[in-house]
From TrEMBL:
This is Mediator of RNA polymerase II transcription subunit 18. It comes from Didymella heteroderae. GO terms for molecular function: transcription coregulator activity. Residues 42-51 have a biased composition (Basic and acidic residues). GO terms for biological process: regulation of transcription by RNA polymerase II; termination of RNA polymerase II transcription.
Length: 283
């Protein structure tokens, strides 16, 4: 699955106005969305940039093996997404989790509330919209935290909450939202909470209260040029319709980078840093 994306910003003062405009444009009532997003990072560290080009070996290595050895391994952050309702907040449990449950009663008409989400870094194409690969897997049983820890293996990083409203116009999914977090305990957690805290205890990540407007079209067959072009054109048509209300634009792809960055170990000096330090002495 690939996503075609455009983004805009809506000030807190204009939120209600834009919500009504989107409701009229999409001919539907806004659907309130509450989510918890838990971030996981791979246990192992990424390789030093360029290290895949310096690996040793004999000159008799097969071509296929040589091509594999010159391909750097990328590591990515992944998300565990939980669908929430107002009743899920403030149940008084503040312990780190080992007992989250994703069990689903299909006979009772329940839908999966947990899913694992991977979002790739957007590509470098120039189509006027952001395009990235994404994959979401519903979890229908067991402990979702344990699943994420063992599947990587991964380790817990942090968690945050998303509050907003969703609309659908044709194939365009519009999500007007903002991000909330619990700053007092966020850096002290070793795992996700069993239950979310009271909603009133959450604070805005952006203190200005600005909302993010995400316009998205999902494309299943990315290699079909006609399908891709139709998706891009529909998203751009929505962008044109929103002019004067919300300016949608193509974000910098590096701000949406989900890769784990390589960091030098403490005390390690790179060759470039050593040469820079010796340069004044050689003058």
């Amino acid at each position: 699955m690939h996503e075609l994306l455009l983004y805009g910003q809506v000030s807190a003062a204009r939120h209600d106005q834009v919500l009504k405009i989107l409701a009229g444009f999409a001919a539907m009532q806004p659907r309130r969305i509450l989510q918890r997003r838990i971030i996981y990072r791979p246990e192992r560290e990424p390789e030093e940039p360029g290290s895949h080009l310096r690996r040793g070996g004999t000159q008799n290595v097969a071509v296929k093996q040589k091509q594999q050895s010159t391909t750097p391994t990328q590591l990515y952050y992944t998300h565990l997404v939980q669908k929430l309702s107002d009743e899920d907040f403030g149940k008084g449990d503040s312990k780190a989790s080992e007992t989250l449950s994703a069990d689903v009663d299909f006979e009772g008409g329940q839908e999966p509330r947990w899913s694992s989400l991977f979002e790739d870094m957007p590509d470098t194409g120039d189509r006027g919209v952001s395009i990235r690969f994404t994959n979401s897997t519903d979890l229908i049983g067991g402990d979702p935290h344990t699943f994420m820890i063992t599947s990587g293996p991964n380790r817990f990083v942090t968690e945050y909450y998303v509050e907003g409203h969703r609309f659908v116009h044709g194939n365009v999914v519009v999500f007007l939202h903002r991000i909330l977090h619990e700053p007092a305990v966020r850096n002290l957690q070793t795992g996700p909470k069993v239950n979310p805290p009271a909603f009133d205890s959450l604070q805005l990540l952006d203190q200005s209260g600005t909302y993010i407007l995400e316009a998205k079209v999902r494309v299943q067959d990315f290699k079909d040029a006609s399908v891709l072009e139709a998706g891009v054109n529909e998203l751009k048509a929505f962008q044109t319709s929103m002019r004067g209300c919300v300016e949608l634009s193509l974000p910098d792809r590096l701000t949406m980078d989900t890769r784990v960055k390589y960091k030098l170990a403490p005390g390690v000096v790179t060759k470039a840093q050593a040469q820079q330090a010796q340069a004044p002495q050689n003058r």
